[in-house]
Amino acid sequence: MQPFTYERASGLREAAAAVAARPDAKFIAGGTNLIDLMKLEIERPTHLVDISRLPLRLIDETPEGGLRIGAQVPNSDLAADMRVRTRYPLLSQALLSGASAQLRNKASTAGNLLQRTRCPYFYCRDMPCNKRSPGSGCSALGGFNRLHAIFGASEACIAVHPSDMAVAMTALDARVETIQPDGRSRVFPIGDLHRLPGTTPHIETTLARGEMITAVTLPPPPPGRQLYRKVRDRTSYAFALVSVAAIVDAASGRIRSARIAMGGVAPKPWRSIEGERALGGRPAGDEIFAAAADAALAGARAEGHAAFKIELARRTLRRTLAETSQGV
Ligand code: SF4
């Protein structure tokens, strides 16, 4: 591991300013992804700013009836919070489907959002990777790519974002709060946090240098049933091949509204407006769920081995929609 210096942040603004002041500085909180990457010398920060003890560990009610989740709330605490379990069950389900109990105890809310891809070539320094080494090429194109994207990829990178939590938050229309080095704060939809790779896959978010996530706010719980379904190669401690976060509001056999987000399929949590439109105002039933799944997957494209994911996503979405609509 490359040598680095360390400081414990004394305040929010101070933390943001400390990272902005040094080009190779990074925030560290739980470290569940960053430390692994530093050991492999894929991440090579010269200075770490520890934000794990900043006062960002509370989950507060908002005046609107939602929840404001501090950036340093551990994944395990968030999953276990009774307000999350009862009002946002798909978020709790998504969190508990991710990583292991030990990792969830350490991983923070903001760190989960900002974790990096698990593309195997990104972790192999002997192989070209545009995300790790811009301009070097993409080994996954034409390589082992069954875990890779079916939406949002580019010729420079076909990696997927690995978070489950972010997929649930996307379906819930969460908003991200940040503080910038000059002390100003910013609030924006979670869908605006992650960038698609384009020609610059090494730039993964819209955060400015030193900008630090301070909280994620959930609006009041949407009407309807919520469900998170994750399909993976083994039933624990594995990233999603495909996951679906679905919220369906239906009554008297008719769907009033629906929200769909998918994970394991794109460089960012993938909201499917097409799938949602195919459901709204229609009678609940397998024919409509199949049509919605077709609409959601209409734009999917795969490189080589990932082609099976298109059908897997179609079936997973169809089944998840059916489960959220049982008995309506
Ligand atoms: Fe690197 Fe992206 Fe290609 Fe994987 S898919 S090798 S992360 S450029």
Q: Could you characterize what this model shows?
A:
- This protein is an alpha+beta fold and 328 residues long.
- Helices cover 28% and strands 20% of the residues.
- It has eleven helices and twelve strands.
- β11 (254-263) and β12 (270-271) form a beta hairpin.
- The longest helix has 17 residues, at 308-324.
- It is globular.
- Bound molecules: iron/sulfur cluster.
- Residues 117, 119, 121-122, 129-131, 138-140, 157-159, 201 line the site of iron/sulfur cluster.
Q: Averaged pLDDT, please?
A: 97
Q: Which kinds of small molecule does this entry bind, naming each only once?
A: iron/sulfur cluster
Secondary structure class reads alpha+beta
Specify the helix fraction band.
Answer: 25-40%
Structural shape: globular
How far do the termini sit from each other? 56 Å
Total helical elements: 11
Low-confidence stretches: none
Rounded Rg: 20 Å
Number of strands: 12
What percent strand?
Answer: 15-25%
Major sheet: order of its strands?
4-5-8-6-7
Main sheet specs: 5 strands, antiparallel
Q: How is the quaternary structure best described?
A: single chain
Descriptive terms for the model:
globular; binds iron/sulfur cluster; five-stranded antiparallel sheet; 328 residues; alpha+beta; 11 helices
Offer a quick outline of the entry.
With 328 residues, the protein is of the alpha+beta class. Helices cover 28% and strands 20% of the residues. It binds iron/sulfur cluster.
